[in-house]
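Give me the fold.
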Amino acid sequence: MPITPTRRSFVAGGAACSASALLPMASHLAAADTRPQLQIPPELFSDGKGEIHLTAQPGTMQFGSRALTPTYGFNGPFLGPAVRLRRGDDVVMHVKNALPEPTTVHWHGLIIPGDADGGPHQIIQPADT
């Protein structure tokens, strides 16, 4: 015997399908509430003399509910600021190493001479600038 759907059963079925399509989104939103927020780094601009000062330094951070973790950062305990420059401006970068070991800095996104772009040929010793 063939089943003949009624308008009521058709609308109820459509509502059920629509609700089931939203379940994955609802569970995704609930999971998003338990994730840590994306940290947006502060911006760092040159001062009135066209200079920027960065300090590589040790610190500690707590990631989620875990114990404090030793970290390295620039001008703070973890990662560092986003350095903002204007195309064509000359800027002097002062990088101080307050870490207990040598470090170096590579300048992503800048067009500068290779001998000023960090790497193993431009090591900054502890306590040096």
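The first strand starts at residue 43 and ends at 44.
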